[in-house]
């Protein structure tokens, strides 16, 4: 059986801890490979090598670092199909969705090609008598990223591309559930011209995470995952004096107004709620129709669409809407939450509990579920299910619908479907959620804007990608310069002030 190790100093190496985790094929339920889990000692050694490689990389001018990103983009295009197939085999998502995973990461790399502009400082001429002031953006040194299973290409690129182009060395700890693509990305970056040691990829579990948080050389840490772990990493990392940004869970609401195009809204809900088997932090998991008539019309449109969803393995090509979930534990958790919804009195309009795919009975497939008459006190409303389950929560008025989104603990993404510009504008202005869609169900910003939620969906003060990435992965140094001319009188013992 294949054993995956780590990427250290420009090459693949075997792990030395003696500990391994299984890598499943979610479509068949078989263990297809094993991945080494790094020890704290392995992590510390990789960090030391990265710290040794970083100064020369940082000394390279930003334009040359940007050229590495430019070459990386071309290689990503070249190997798109290979990356997508590998990603689908380990994660389970469909091939078109896997290509989208790579593409959304690639777009952030494209934005990073503009690093020479984004790293420019500020300059003030004659801030005082003969005094100039200017600022410089300088790399942190060594940074680290801890990334999740659901986007094994996109989120590693969201983290490492800005960090690297800013002149940092980077330690990537990807999910141990689907580690092949991150290792392939490291190989492509080396081919693009990244010096050895500047990027280290260590596979691991909590031991590796804690070693990252406690290592004094690592200056910044980025994380994407569940809210409890995000909070843990944020608190422990900050206590160690690191700069930390952590993105957690979500429960994204989509408000459907009475004037909405109901076919458009239903199509949007099905794509946003069931795509990638619901394993997206920006999935719509709660539909909030305003008014009883709106709710009835929406359910009427949704039921045939949900019942017609095609679930299957990625090997079926593009004739599949979504694939399996990542592990048997994920499948069992979804089934438990579905049962909790039934026990609490929600109406299961589309029941996917008995779904089975002929020839893939061992796979981790979960049929589509649609709940109606869900209420805010139910566990299926409060928790992130991370599966193909859509809950309809009926609201009597627009204000009631808005309040549902605003009162929920999570604040990652939300959307409103309406033809009323005033309602849309009011919603965008008032809702306390980080990313808002107006007739757009999954409002993930493009690479030159920033991505981030509010409330318990985020810990830290800067978003991912866009301009915030360059702020997060650099420190600002401000220089006050005075070049004396001629003979000056005496010495000054008071604080200088502007004349």
Q: Features of this protein?
A:
single chain; 7-stranded mixed sheet; 6-stranded mixed sheet; Aldehyde Dehydrogenase, Chain A, domain 2; 22% strand; Aldehyde Dehydrogenase, Chain A, domain 1; 2 domains; 23 strands; 499 residues; alpha/beta; 39% helix
Describe the structure.
Helix content is 39%, strand content 22%. With 499 residues, it is α/β, with parallel strands linked by helices. The protein is globular and about 85 Å long. Strands 15-16-17-14-13-19-20 form a seven-stranded mixed sheet, with helices on both faces. The chain has a six-stranded mixed sheet with strand order 10-9-8-11-12-22, sandwiched between helices. The chain folds into two domains: 2-248 and 457-479, 3-Layer(aba) Sandwich (Aldehyde Dehydrogenase, Chain A, domain 1), CATH 3.40.605.10; 252-438, Aldehyde Dehydrogenase, Chain A, domain 2 (3-Layer(aba) Sandwich), CATH 3.40.309.10. It contains 16 helices and 23 strands.
């Amino acid at each position: 059986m294949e054993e995956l190790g780590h990427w250290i100093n420009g090459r693949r190496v075997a792990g030395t801890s003696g500990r391994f985790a299984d890598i499943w094929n979610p479509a068949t339920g078989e263990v297809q490979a094993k991945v080494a889990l790094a020890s704290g000692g392995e992590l510390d050694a990789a960090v030391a090598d990265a710290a040794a490689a970083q100064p020369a990389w940082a000394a390279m001018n930003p334009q040359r670092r940007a050229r590495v990103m430019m070459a990386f983009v071309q290689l990503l295009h070249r190997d798109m199909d290979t990356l997508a197939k590998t990603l689908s085999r380990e994660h389970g998502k469909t091939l078109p969705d896997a290509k989208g995973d790579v593409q959304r990461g690639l777009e952030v790399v494209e934005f990073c090609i503009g690093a020479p502009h984004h790293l420019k400082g500020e300059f003030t001429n004659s801030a005082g008598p003969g005094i100039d002031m200017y600022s410089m953006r300088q790399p942190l040194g060594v940074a680290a990223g801890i990334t999740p299973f659901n986007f094994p290409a996109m989120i590693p690129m969201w983290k490492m591309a800005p960090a690297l182009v800013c002149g940092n060395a980077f330690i990537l700890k990807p999910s141990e559930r689907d580690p092949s693509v991150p290792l392939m990305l490291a190989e492509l970056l080396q081919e693009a011209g990244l010096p050895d040691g500047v990027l280290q990829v260590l596979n691991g579990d909590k031991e590796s995470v804690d070693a990252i948080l406690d290592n004094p050389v690592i200056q910044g840490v980025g994380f994407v995952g569940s809210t409890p772990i995000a909070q843990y990493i944020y608190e422990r990392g900050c206590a160690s004096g690191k700069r930390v940004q952590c993105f957690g869970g979500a429960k994204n609401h989509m408000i459907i107004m009475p004037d909405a195009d109901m076919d458009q809204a239903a199509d949007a809900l099905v794509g946003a709620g069931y795509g990638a088997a619901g394993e997206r932090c920006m999935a719509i998991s709660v539909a909030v129709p305003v008014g009883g008539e709106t709710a009835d019309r929406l359910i009427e449109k949704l039921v045939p669409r949900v019942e017609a969803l095609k679930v299957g393995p990625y090997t079926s090509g593009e004739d599949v809407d979504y694939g399996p979930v990542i592990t048997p534990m994920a499948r069992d958790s979804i089934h438990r939450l579905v049962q909790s919804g039934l026990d609490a009195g929600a109406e299961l309009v589309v029941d996917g509990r008995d779904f089975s795919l002929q020839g893939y009975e061992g796979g981790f497939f979960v049929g589509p579920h649609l709940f109606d008459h869900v209420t805010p006190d139910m566990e299926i409303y409060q928790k992130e299910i991370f599966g193909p389950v859509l809950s309809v929560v009926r609201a009597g008025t627009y204000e009631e619908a808005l309040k549902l989104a605003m009162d929920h603990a999570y604040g990652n993404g939300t959307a409103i479907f309406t033809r009323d510009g005033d309602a849309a504008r009011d919603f965008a202005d008032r809702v306390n959620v980080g990313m808002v869609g107006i007739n757009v169900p999954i409002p993930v910003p493009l690479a030159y804007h920033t991505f981030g939620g509010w409330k318990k969906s985020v810990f830290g003060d800067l978003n991912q990608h866009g301009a915030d990435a360059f702020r997060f992965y650099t420190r600002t140094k401000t220089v006050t310069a005075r070049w004396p001319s001629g003979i000056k009188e005496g010495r000054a013992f008071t604080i200088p002030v502007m004349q």
